[in-house]
């Protein structure tokens, strides 16, 4: 075993392919860099869009790094390990995925240079790890405090996440909506994501998106169109009693019988009577429980719905399990498995339940008990795809706002944070007396890739931009960043281009982890499906950091530029 590298002993047939040492590294680095090259042009507010053709033939236009990576068919294990890290970035902090991948690619490129100069892989990974640790500290010095009551500041944070995804007007509009949602349920500086519901409904423009006080639930449209003739339940019920049924309101539940055989008109008549009887029992139970609204997880027979409507009770069928749970939390109702378990104690209360049409979708808006806040964001978009993509970006926005409010700190964007970190790392490097110094310097160079690309995407000369930024930071102007709209350098905080500290920190940590994983790997073993390769490794057998990367696809693997989902 040599210096932290990994070896394997293989036994197997001809169908085992191996790549060792520099060959393995080159192949991995090439894959990682290719992935980074592919998405780097999407970085920043002036990033370009990508047109993706998914394997099922759908065309998607997006410049959201996370969304692109998600849809790419990536088969190379090295590229896949970068994707995994990017996904973690996305799920933990909701932003910074493109930055993390681009930084990982740059760290790999610089590591390759160092390896060529004869620097050992362990020296590189240690130096990178030290640099990353130092970088996180440097970011702490860069923070601005977030005031959760300062809506303008929060809108700036939200806008920095979404600029470039839509035009200026739409970004401003949607950023404001995201802030409204978060502030509606903010409590003592904490945001409970369970109190937020998002729904994407096609058929209208972004500007028809709205924040709704309460929980919105999809109503199966069939459940109301078939309620005829009138009278039906009112469109809005104030101070409603809510029942939740985690089952169905059909005849089978009541009898436990699957089929009924009818042999004569008398039988049919008897059966009809029996049926009517069961239905009426159902309805009586609901009426007796005092319910004004019933949400049912499965279907409700037309006849039951009709009888309920006649009693002025709103019945909603096919409510999803998670929605039932949310309704339970909001109203205090306990979902019952069958109608027989429905008692007044199992019901809950809602300040108001309202039926509302949004586009072709019918929604039930439920405001919870007096002290329970729920808020929903109904997002519109021309097509289902546009509405879904909007929802995706808004989700990131909500996550980022949550981080900003809960952690209470943001750092300047527009490359300012990266230039500050690079400057600090170069200073730190001179205090590192061994060869790790070279890796720390390589890290400093790598992190400047962010301002370089931001400059490039806006038609600025990347070298001049970075040189000028460095000079401004050297003069003590720590928040100097790229003002991409005007092609100048300005105070990023004053311009409102700020991002949560957690996003930047996670991007650096994620990228370092991904790069170090690939620098450490010195052997790639490819095993065809019927090949019998046994990796006898004293370390981990999985695909985790430092492990052996296996594939059933055979070598060479390609970073798929064909997209699939
Ligand atoms: P990521 O997936 O890494 O979040 P983005 O495409 O969202 O990638 O770009 C984020 C980068 O764009 C950050 O470095 C951020 O500071 C920068 N940025 C965002 N808005 C602006 C702006 N108005 N001016 C300058 N830089 C900006
Ligand atoms: Mg972003």
Short key terms for the protein model shown above:
565 residues; alpha+beta; GROEL, domain 1; GroEL; six-stranded mixed beta sheet; three-stranded mixed beta sheet; 19 strands; 17% strand; elongated; disordered C terminus; binds adenosine-5'-diphosphate; binds magnesium ion; Chaperonin_TCP-1_CS; ATP binding; nucleotide-binding; chaperone; thermosome_alpha
Describe this structure in words.
There is one protein chain. This protein is α+β, with helices and mostly antiparallel strands. Among the domains are: 12-144 and 421-459 and 499-534, GROEL, domain 1 (Orthogonal Bundle); 215-253 and 264-373, GroEL. It is 46% helix and 17% strand. It is built from 18 helices and 19 strands. Strands 7-12-11-8-9-10 form a 6-stranded mixed sheet. The two termini are 40 Å apart. The model is unreliable at 1-13, 221-229 and 531-565 (pLDDT under 50). The structure holds adenosine-5'-diphosphate and magnesium ion (MG). Adenosine-5'-diphosphate (ADP) binds at residues 42-45, 47, 65, 95-99, 160, 163-164, 413-414, 450, 454, 482, 484, 497, 499. It comes from Natribaculum luteum. Residues 533-544 have a biased composition (Basic and acidic residues). This is Thermosome subunit alpha. GO terms for molecular function: ATP binding. Belongs to the TCP-1 chaperonin family.
């Amino acid at each position: 075993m040599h210096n932290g590298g990994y070896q394997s002993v293989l036994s197997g047939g001809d169908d085992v392919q191996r790549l060792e040492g520099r060959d393995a590294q080159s192949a991995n680095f090439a894959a990682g860099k290719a992935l980074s090259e592919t998405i780097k042009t999407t970085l920043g507010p002036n990033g370009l869009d990508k047109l993706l053709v998914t394997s099922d033939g759908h065309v998607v236009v997006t410049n959201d790094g996370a969304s692109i990576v998600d849809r790419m068919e990536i088969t190379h294990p090295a590229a896949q390990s970068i994707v995994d890290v990017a996904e973690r970035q996305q799920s933990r902090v909701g932003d910074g995925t493109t930055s993390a991948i681009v930084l990982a690619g740059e760290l790999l490129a610089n590591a390759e240079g160092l390896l060529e100069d004869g620097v050992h892989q362990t020296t590189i990974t240690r130096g990178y790890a030290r640099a990353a640790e130092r970088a996180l500290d440097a970011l702490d010095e860069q923070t601005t405090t977030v005031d959760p009551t300062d809506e303008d500041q929060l809108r700036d944070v939200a806008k920095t996440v979404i600029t470039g995804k839509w035009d200026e007007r739409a970004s401003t509009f949607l950023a404001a909506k995201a802030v409204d949602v978060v502030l509606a349920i903010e409590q003592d500086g904490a945001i409970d994501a369970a109190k937020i519901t998002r729904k994407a409904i096609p058929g209208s423009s972004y500007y028809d998106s709205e924040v709704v006080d309460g929980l919105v639930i999809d109503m199966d449209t069939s459940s109301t169109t078939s309620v005829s003739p009138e009278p039906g339940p009112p469109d809005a019920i104030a101070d409603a009693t809510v029942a939740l049924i985690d089952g169905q309101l059909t005849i089978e539940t009541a009898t436990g019988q699957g089929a009924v055989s009818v042999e004569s008109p008398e039988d049919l008549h008897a059966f009809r009577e029996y049926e009517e009887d069961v239905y009426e029992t159902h309805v009586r139970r609901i009426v007796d429980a005092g319910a004004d609204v019933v949400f049912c997880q499965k279907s409700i027979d037309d006849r039951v719905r009709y009888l309920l409507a006649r009693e002025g009770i709103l019945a909603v069928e096919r409510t999803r399990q998670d929605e039932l749970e949310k309704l339970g939390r909001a109203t205090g109702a306990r979902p019952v498995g069958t109608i027989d378990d429905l008692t007044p104690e199992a019901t809950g209360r809602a300040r108001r339940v309202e039926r509302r049409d949004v586009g072709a979708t019918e929604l039930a808006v439920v405001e919870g008990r007096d002290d329970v806040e729920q808020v929903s964001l109904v997002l519109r978009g021309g097509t289902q795809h546009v509405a879904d993509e909007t929802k995706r970006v808004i989700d990131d926005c909500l996550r980022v706002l949550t981080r900003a409010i809960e952690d209470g700190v943001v750092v300047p964007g527009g490359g300012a944070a990266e230039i500050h970190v690079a400057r600090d790392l170069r200073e730190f490097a001179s205090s590192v007396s061994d060869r790790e110094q070279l890796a720390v310097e390589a890290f400093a160079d790598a992190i400047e890739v962010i301002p370089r690309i931001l400059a490039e995407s806006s038609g600025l000369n990347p070298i001049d931009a970075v040189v000028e930024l460095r000079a401004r930071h050297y003069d003590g102007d720590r928040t100097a960043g790229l003002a991409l709209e005007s092609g100048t350098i300005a105070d990023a905080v004053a311009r409102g281009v700020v991002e949560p500290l957690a996003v930047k920190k996670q991007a650096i940590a994620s990228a370092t982890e991904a790069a170090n994983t690939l620098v450490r790997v010195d052997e790639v073993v490819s095993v065809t499906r019927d090949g019998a390769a046994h990796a006898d490794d004293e370390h981990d057998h999985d695909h985790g950091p430092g492990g052996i990367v296996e594939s059933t696809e055979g070598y060479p693997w390609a970073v798929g530029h064909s997209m699939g989902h």
